[in-house]
Amino acid sequence: MSSRSGGVSPHAVHGLVDADREVALLLDIIAATSSGPEVEPMAAAVARMITAATASDVCFVHVLDDTDQSLTLAGATPPFDEQVGRIRMPLGSGVSGWVASHREPVVIVSDKEADPRYVPIAALRGKDFASMASVPMETEPGGLVGVLNVHTIERRDFTPRDIELLLVIGRLIAGALHQARLHRQLSARERAHENFAEQVIAAQESERRRLAGDIHDGISQRLVGLTYRLDAAARAVDDLDQPAAAEQLEKARDLVDLTLAEARSAIGGLRPPVLDDLGLLGGLASLATSIPEVDLDLHLADERLPEHIEVALYRIAQECFQNVVKHSRALVATVTFTVRDGVARLEVVDNGVGFETGPLSSSGGYGMLSMAERAELVGGTLTVRSRPGAGTTVTVSIPVEG
Q1: Cα-flanking dihedrals φ and ψ of residue 143, to 5°?
Q2: d(CA 186, CA 190)
Q3: Can the peptide bond before residue 79 be classed as cis, meaning omega within 30 degrees of 0?
Q4: What keywords tag this UniProt record (predicted)?
Q5: What are phi and psi of 271, to 5 degrees?
């Protein structure tokens, strides 16, 4: 038996059940659609509601998955709720797949195995139930959302009123389920973006560690060895009393010292060990000591954050401190780091010359664009407030999980 599902109005609920059951049913529908933005809790509430409203023994709510190519069991009455998320069927397969493909209800009163559309699923124990009714859940503009199945242990002749009631409930619930699907897809995209950002930053920092190791194990070690040889050569020249040669050797040693200092600075810039050992608090404090030109007033919370966020904030602070030294001509700056209400916030305020703010890409030497990109990569935002003669305030805010 099949019948068309079009032309059903939510008002058709009235008259299908008595007044008391109508009120209870509407309250159940409201509760189901208010159970939260997740698909599974809503589908579970729908299954319980339909079982009670139709006096059936079990209800299965199959929801179209995010590929729109198959149905997933999203809600079921006990004990089949244990199978939620485990049962999947392609469109066109089984009774539910047929209903989804044809957008028409199906009623099987008895002998399900004889129906060519029926495909037994062992986990759902189809043989335990004599009769079933299956209807599509549709909404506009979402189209097909899923399929509702009800089963009874005893033989039951589902009437047109029964099917109409199922269709009405399905249409009333479909909109909320469609919104839940959209919420799930959006959450999945956000998680994918966060994972991608973490992977990008992890790859960058891995490469920085490799370069730092190469500099330390190669260039630095060779320069240290060269320093020892120059020292020995200088002592030998001193013994031979050759002032000119000694002077050249001393200059060469000065050059080696300078190169070694630059190599060590490069290592620290690539991956400061203090960030690994002490976290962002120690990293920012250490970074501040490398800027003697400006009196930095530090207010830093002792909070550990996910590594990719600590790295992003450290790099932003590093760029910001360099801007203070190179461009602001500030004498004093205040650095504040806090974590409150799920948001990590870093603020650097200087009393320098300031500048006319505009698009970050036009801020040239201040490197604001690179800092903004780092903040956005981890889901944060960077704001800049400044005007000529009034100093500059750079604030970065990044949401963090509890």
Answers
A1: 75, -145
A2: 6
A3: yes
A4: 4Fe-4S, Cytoplasm, Iron, Iron-sulfur, Kinase, Metal-binding, Transferase, Two-component regulatory system
A5: -155, 90
Q: Quick: pLDDT tens for 248-272.
A: 677 777 767 777 776 766 666 666 6
Contact 193, 215 (CB under 8 A): no
Task: Give whole-number Cα distances, 243 to 231, 238, 256, in Å.
Answer: 15, 8, 20
Whether residue 388 is contained in a domain is answered as yes
CA distance 178 to 174: 6
Q: Which residue has the tokens 């990293």?
A: 283
Residue 244: partners with Cβ closer than 8 Å, 6 or more residues away: none
pLDDT digits (tens, 9 = 90+) for 112-139: 888 999 988 888 988 899 999 999 988 8
3 state SS for 185-234: HHHHHHHHHHHHHHHHHHHHHHHHHHHHHHHHHHHHHHHHHHHHHHHHHH
Give the domain CATH number at 65: 3.30.450.40
Which residue shows structure tokens 């079982």?
51
Cβ neighbours, 10 Å, residue 387: 11
| Pair 53, 176 in one domain | yes
Which residues in 56-79 are b (16+ Cβ under 10 Å) and which e?
bbbbbbbbbbeeeebbbbbbbbee
